[in-house]
C-alpha cells in the first residue's frame, strides 16, 4: 500500500477533495493505533471551524429520519450552503460494517455536489481506541461542510453520545405516539432543543394536534437547558417538505441565541474535553487488554472473580487496590 502523506491529504481535504475526506475518516475510524495517530496528525494540520452547525437528529424507528434528513438537506442546499450527513451504525461494534443503505435512501441528496453522506461507526467498536464520529465531524468541517447532520438509529445509548458532540439536538416524533413519549421523555426530551412532529400528512388532524399539545405540556416540566434556550416544537412532514423552512429558521434562531450568550464557544470546549476523557479511558483500556493477553488471569478456586481481578492489578500494574 502506498504510504499516506498527511500534509498532502490535509491539503486535499481543505480543497474539498471527497476521496481524501473519506480516506481520512476511514483512518480515524480504524482500530489500528497507527492509523489513529495518522488521522490525528492530519486533523492537527486542518483549520477548526468556529461557525459550523453540528446537529444531532434522532427519533424512534419508523419516524422517517432518512426521508426527513434528505428533505432538510435539500433545503439547506437551496440556501447555497453545504451539508454533510453522518449516520451512526449501531451494529458496527460487532460487524465493523456501516449503514451503506443511507446513500440509497437519500438517493437524490447523494448525487448533489455540495452534499456528503458518510456512515459513521458507533461508540462500541471492539478492539479499537474508540469510534470517531467526533473526528469525522472535524474532517467534514475542514472540507467546507459547515452544516453537519448526525443521524442516530433510535432511542438508546447512541443518543447520549451524539448529544455530547453536537450543538443542537433535534428529536423527531410521530403523531399518536403519546405512550412512547411518556416512556422516553426524561431521557430524550431533556436533551432535545427542537422537536419536529413528522409525517403530519399521514395522520388524522386530531392526532397531530394532540401530539403537539402533549409535547407542549411535557416541555413545561423539563429543567432549563444549560444553553438557556427554551425548547420548541413544530409540526411538518419530511416527505412533502412541510415545516422544513420554518424548522430551519428555528435552527438559525437557536445558533444566533447561543452565539450571543457564548454557550456555543463554551459547549465546543466541553465537547473537546469530553472527547479527551473518552480517549483517556479507551487508551488505558487498550493498554490493559494488551497486558491481559501477555499475562492472562489465572483461575483460583479460593478467590472470587473480583479478588482475582484485584490481585492481577496489584501484581502486574502500578495500581494498588486495597
UniProtKB/TrEMBL annotation:
One of its GO terms (molecular function) is GTPase activity. Keywords: Hydrolase. It is an enzyme of class 3 (hydrolase). Its EC number is 3.6.5.-. One of its GO terms (cellular component) is cytoplasm. The keyword Hydrolase applies. InterPro entries: GTPase_ArgK (IPR005129), P-loop_NTPase (IPR027417). Belongs to the SIMIBI class G3E GTPase family. ArgK/MeaB subfamily. This is Methylmalonyl Co-A mutase-associated GTPase MeaB. It comes from Empedobacter falsenii. The gene is meaB.
Amino acid at each position: 500500500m502506498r504510504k499516506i502523506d498527511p500534509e498532502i491529504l490535509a491539503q486535499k481535504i481543505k480543497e474539498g477533495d471527497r476521496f481524501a475526506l473519506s480516506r481520512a475518516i476511514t483512518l480515524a475510524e480504524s482500530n489500528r493505533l497507527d492509523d489513529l495517530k495518522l488521522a490525528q496528525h492530519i486533523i492537527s494540520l486542518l483549520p477548526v471551524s468556529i461557525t459550523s452547525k453540528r446537529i444531532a437528529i434522532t427519533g424512534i424507528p419508523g419516524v422517517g429520519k432518512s426521508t426527513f434528513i434528505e428533505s432538510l438537506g435539500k433545503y439547506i442546499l437551496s440556501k447555497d450552503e453545504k451539508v454533510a450527513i453522518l449516520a451512526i451504525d449501531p451494529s458496527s461494534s460487532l460487524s465493523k460494517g456501516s449503514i451503506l443503505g443511507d446513500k440509497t435512501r437519500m438517493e437524490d441528496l447523494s448525487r448533489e455536489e455540495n452534499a456528503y453522506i458518510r456512515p459513521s461507526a458507533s461508540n462500541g467498536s471492539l478492539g479499537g481506541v474508540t469510534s470517531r464520529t467526533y473526528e469525522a465531524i472535524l474532517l467534514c468541517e475542514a472540507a467546507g461542510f459547515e452544516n453537519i447532520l448526525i443521524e442516530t438509529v433510535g432511542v438508546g445509548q447512541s443518543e447520549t453520545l451524539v448529544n455530547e458532540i453536537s450543538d443542537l439536538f433535534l428529536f423527531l416524533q410521530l403523531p399518536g405516539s403519546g405512550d412512547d413519549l411518556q416512556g422516553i421523555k426524561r431521557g430524550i426530551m431533556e436533551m432535545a432543543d427542537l422537536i419536529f412532529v413528522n409525517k403530519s400528512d399521514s395522520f388524522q388532524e386530531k392526532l397531530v394536534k394532540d401530539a403537539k399539545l402533549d409535547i407542549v405540556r411535557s416541555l413545561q416540566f423539563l429543567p432549563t437547558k444549560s444553553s438557556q434556550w427554551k425548547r420548541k416544537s413544530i409540526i411538518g412532514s419530511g416527505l412533502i417538505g412541510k415545516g422544513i423552512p420554518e424548522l430551519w429558521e428555528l435552527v438559525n434562531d437557536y445558533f444566533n441565541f447561543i452565539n450571543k450568550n457564548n454557550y456555543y464557544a463554551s459547549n465546543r470546549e466541553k465537547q473537546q474535553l469530553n472527547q479527551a476523557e473518552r480517549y483517556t479511558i479507551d487508551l488505558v483500556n487498550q493498554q490493559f487488554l494488551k497486558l491481559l493477553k501477555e499475562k492472562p488471569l489465572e483461575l483460583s478456586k479460593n478467590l472470587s472473580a473480583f479478588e482475582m481481578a484485584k490481585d492481577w492489578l496489584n501484581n502486574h500494574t502500578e495500581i494498588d487496590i486495597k
